[in-house]
């Protein structure tokens, strides 16, 4: 059987060359290219759900198990079928997918253009990280609770306030996300210390006001970033120093001691074998 070739511009059209040695091979070639058997005439570009003109030849394979997936979006084949195709049909159509399978593009089906239930479900699925194992959740929750209760006990024994809101946020990072840079000892201890010093500097220059407290929180963020001690709860520490006019002593020593306590408990939990090892680095 001879098959009429489609050649690019500049070559003779209508020449015949052997393409298939047996008739059934033609059907498999058609199946692989996903062309309508009646396709003939001008070369066509086959897009999913559309019928548009093609530029250039289409490469195909005789193996029905092999699908040609060229790296570019434009597929080309080098054959037309003079004996079995109708010359008056100028359209190359896309073979619809098998029943039960809907090929979609951009959340819509190629055939009907409607959104399927599967597409809607995919859009609602969360991209949040997977939930930790139950054992890990139980261990780091217990560790955080014990560490914060220990701060309360120290405060009660010394008649000082050791449990501060920024330290609770620091504990959430140390125990809940021990592998993040924000949770490492350099950031927890150094970040809280530098943010507190920033707050005291703003307090000395601008006094205690809500405006100055906002400025202190923003400056603390920049200071911790510049010193490679990023720790988001530390910005709240600077704000508290200005808003509440905290004294340098005993506020600063208590703050440093409390962060050390959190790091120590974080180390103990990180060596339990259930949660990730902590710390990832010290300095």
Automatic annotation (TrEMBL):
Sequence intervals crossing the membrane: 135-157, 163-182, 194-227, 247-269
Lineage, top-rank taxon, reads Bacteria
According to its UniProt record, what is one Pfam family this protein matches?
Answer: TM_HPP
Q: Does the keyword ATP-binding apply?
A: no
Region annotation Disordered: residue ranges? 90-115
- Cite the record's Low complexity compositional bias ranges: 98-115
Alphabetized, the UniProt keywords read: Membrane, Transmembrane, Transmembrane helix
HPP transmembrane region domain location:
131-279
PANTHER family, per the entry: TRANSMEMBRANE PROTEIN DDB_G0269096-RELATED (PTHR33741:SF5)
Q: What is this protein called?
A: HPP transmembrane region domain-containing protein
